[in-house]
Amino acid sequence: MYSYEQLEKWRSLCSSSFYVLDTEKLSDNYRRFQRAFTRRYEHVVVAYSYKTNYLPFLCQKLHQLGAHAEVVSRLEYELARKLGVDPASIIFNGPLKTEDDIHFALEQGSLINLDSFSEIPWVVAYAMQYPEQTFRIGLRINVDLARGGVSPLQNGYEVSRFGFCVENGNLEKALSQLAVAPNVHVVGLHGHFSTNRSVGVYRQITRHLCRLGKQHLGERLAFIDIGGGFFGELPTSFGMTAAPTFEEYAEAITSVVKEELAELDHAPLLILEPGISLVADAVDFVCRVIDVKENKGERFVLVDGSIHNVKPTMHSHLLPARLVCNRKPVPEATYHVVGYTCMEKDYLLQGYTGPLPDIGDYFVFGHVGAYTLVFNPPFIRERPPVLAIDGNEAFIVRGKETLQQFIPESVYRFHVDKQEVVN
Predict the structure, then answer these.
(1) How far apart (Å, rounded) are the C-alpha atoms in residues 181 and 124?
(2) Angle, helices 74-82/56-64, rounded to nearest 10 degrees
(3) Could you say which architecture CATH assigns to the domain 4-19+281-406?
(4) Are 172 and 216 in contact (CB under 8 A)?
(5) Which of 96, 149, 248, 419 is most buried, judging by how many CB atoms fall within 10 Å of its CB?
(6) What's the rounded Cα separation, in Å, for the pair 22 and 388?
(7) What is the number of other CB atoms lying within 10 angstroms of the CB of residue 180?
(8) Angle at 151 between CA 146 and CA 157, to 5 degrees
């Protein structure tokens, strides 16, 4: 772990609270995930889910290790291209793609998984303009995963809002509409669901993908895309001791693929789109104690961070936290760690029992690599810098924002006397 002297040095570089990216941990997570699947099945693509954390340095590190890019917007697509990712290694998913997005991705040769009927006419129209070319695409399926009347979907939703429904015939309808263009070939199915992340659910999704692929695509089936959502290593503070391992996920998914698709003359590509499992525990957040006070018998420790920096999705799990002091010993006490915003609910830790901090001490919050940097708003203060640790080197990979970067004049109107009429 970090020493007080290290944190003091790093803070002097960042001039504020900051994130720390452990590149060795990130690389190890990717290698273990990728190896778990390739040991069991030869044809595997691991496409990193950009939306989880699209810090350019982090994405580039994963691409250097062999990861493809899974994107759900033109913004993310353009970032992947700026980082030098081959368009053929970009998978374009998501529920909202524009006509221009579809045409651009088809022109570039990227894989597109269609999510809704609104996208189909754009594919057909573009393909008919270029009858000499063949366009290979995928469809995202929507299938009932409930067992015994219990849904495994996120928040207990009974019906997923994504993809083409199998039960009501929408999948067959989508295939029929795409068949109007003979040079459009549906060659794969996408099965990403936000679920409870259990091994059994992934086994179930994989079986649906394989059977639907055989039924509707036959020998044309080139890939099945399982999606993401896998658990990575979890801290003990989460209280979840039985989370599946990469090996358990890989064994469940690949065994179903080999069993269900053995009759095909070829082995389809297995696509996986991990995000949280690769980055969550590779990033820490470091904030400094600014003040310690007592109100009506309650101790409050003010830090130069916020709940938005460590838990913007407001999940219920207790993040691992460690106090780094410049003195010993430190007595224990119960207190609340609160953030810099003007909101009463800005608690980073509530009713926490541990060493009592003093002004100038540091809190280090772990397991904050997923969604924090992408959800983290520039609210009241600028977004914190990001420091990357690579071996013995430490360097800034996202600097502290200035007002000009926070509210750029190229985007915002600053002067009310300058009117511009939009016809």
Answers:
(1) 6
(2) 60
(3) Beta Barrel (2.40)
(4) yes
(5) 248
(6) 6
(7) 12
(8) 130
Strand partners, 70: 49, 91
Q: Which two structure tokens, joined as six digits, stand for 208?
A: 């649906």
* Residue 256 clears pLDDT 80, i.e. is over it: yes
Q: Are 338 and 300 in contact (CB under 8 A)?
A: yes
In the chain, what percentage of residues exceed pLDDT 70? 99
pLDDT category at 419 given cuts 50, 70, 90 is: low
Which residues touch 195 (CB under 8 Å, ≥6 apart)? 145, 152, 153, 154, 201, 229
Report the alpha-carbon distance of residue 389 to residue 21 in Å, rounded.
Answer: 6
Q: Give dist(CA 34, CA 43) in Å, integer.
A: 11
Q: What is the pLDDT of residue 234?
A: 92
Distance CA 94, CA 352 (A): 39
The residues, any chain, with a CB within 8 Å of residue 76's CB and separated by 6 or more, are 50, 51, 54, 69
Domains 4-19+281-406 and 23-280 share a fold: no
| 3-state SS string for 52-116 | HCCCHHHHHHHHHCCCEEEECCHHHHHHHHHCCCCHHHEEECCCCCCHHHHHHHHHHCCEEEECC
Other beta carbons less than 10 A from residue 331's beta carbon: 6
**Cα distance between residue 263 and residue 261, in whole Å:** 5
Count CB-CB contacts under 10 A for residue 210: 22
Token output for 217: 């695509």
DSSP 262: T
Residue with tokens 């640790």: 389
Q: Which residues contact 103 (CB under 8 A, 6 or more apart)?
A: 122, 126
Q: Where do the structural domains in the chain lie, given as residue ranges?
A: 4-19+281-406, 23-280
SS3 263: coil
Taking the domain 23-280, which CATH number applies? Answer: 3.20.20.10
Name the nearest CA neighbour of 251 among 40, 29, 24. Answer: 40
Report the length, in residues, of the chain.
423
Which residues contact residue 10 at a Cβ distance below 8 angstroms, ignoring those fewer than 6 apart?
Answer: 18, 20, 286, 387, 394
What's the token pair of residue 139?
């469809």
Q: Which two tokens stand for residue 43?
A: 């044809």
What are the backbone dihedrals phi and psi of residue 171, each rounded to the nearest 5 degrees, phi first? -65, -45
Give the position of tokens 């086994």.
Answer: 203
> In 10 A of CB 233, how many CB atoms?
15
pLDDT above 80 (res 417): no
**269 strand-pairing partners:** 223
